[in-house]
Design a protein that fits this description.
Elements (H helix, E strand, L loop, with lengths): L1 E7 L2 E6 L9 E10 L2 H9 L8 E2 L4 E8 L13 E4 L2 E2 L5 H4 L10 E2 L6 E5 L3 E3 L6 H4 L2 H14 L6 E5 L3 H11 L4 E6 L3 H10 L3 E3 L6 H9 L4 E6 L7 H6 L1 E9 L13 H7 L2 E4 L7 H7 L5 H4 E6 L3 H9 L5 E5 L3
Parallel strand pairs: 11-12, 11-14, 12-13, 14-15, 15-16, 17-18
Antiparallel strand pairs: 1-2, 1-4, 3-5, 3-9, 3-18, 5-6, 6-10, 7-8
Helix pairs in contact: 4-5, 4-10
Length: 335
Amino acid sequence: MKQLWFVADGQIEMRDSEVPDVGFREVKIKIAYAAMCATDVHIVTMGLMNVRPPAPLGHEASGTIVELGPGTENSGLRVGDKVCLSPSAFCGICPDCKRGQTQYCTNNVIRGAFAEYAVVDVSKVYKIPDDADLMAYCLVEPANCAVRAMDLTEVKHGSTVAISGVGGIGSIVLNMLLLTGATKITAIDPIPAKRKLALDMGAQYTIDPVAEDIEGVADSITDGRGFDYVFEVSGVTVAAEPVLKILARCGTAVYFAVYPRDYKLPLNLYDLYRKEGRIQTVFTTHSLMPRTINLIPRLQTDKIIGKVMPLSDSVESFDLFHKSLYPKIILDCSK
């Protein structure tokens, strides 16, 4: 089968790999679609998550079950079921797993979903509706991270919110914010097409951080108060500091993105103290996946998905990702 691999620092390669056998508690899935994520790119460019080559890539996917291994009899899953998945497995025995924080498992094993098939532990396979659009449901895993953000931040109805970065995950977070009852939703992005996308999705205002004074426009939108919540979703270091400058008193700054491992945020603790401001980061938790599956029909996936490419062009998809032309790039793993 075709499969994309992280082969050396900064290098990826399409390989012919053996279709993996199914072991105890494992499920074999014919992958339909897999979505590009900044995490995949950062694994290759920054060694994120301590992943070292050679390693398969891809973790946002959907497909159809083609084989069930022993130990899956009571899972409720059947051959032919449409599913979404997280192609990794937690061990259940490390200290983090025993605390119920399996997302931090120190023995996590990544299987990779930029492939024609994936074999995944049954605990990371989630059934979706029989009539599900598999392309839309490959967004369950990234949308799950956005649900985690909504849970952690507890955005209140009527609160003012700004979001910095309307790329792949940014457009999903924006969609979630539109469902929360937030107001004066403002998208900050230097790319005109992405500001237009934000308005098309339902944002009320946009700011061009290159051509406009972010603080001045934010003051105009919020009557000088600042935003109750500011989500930084771009992962661009120059975008990280303005978040704190446009934050309202008692506001929450949410750093959602992945930044370079050696980046240190300039922070004036006195200013933050005067505001009683809070800083929140977001990772994920897979126990939310059933809730996220329920939300997919309410996402504007026709706008969030910007480009569909064949799996055979996955090396080129990484180059395209760096151009920031599209919100979410999807790989069609049947081609």
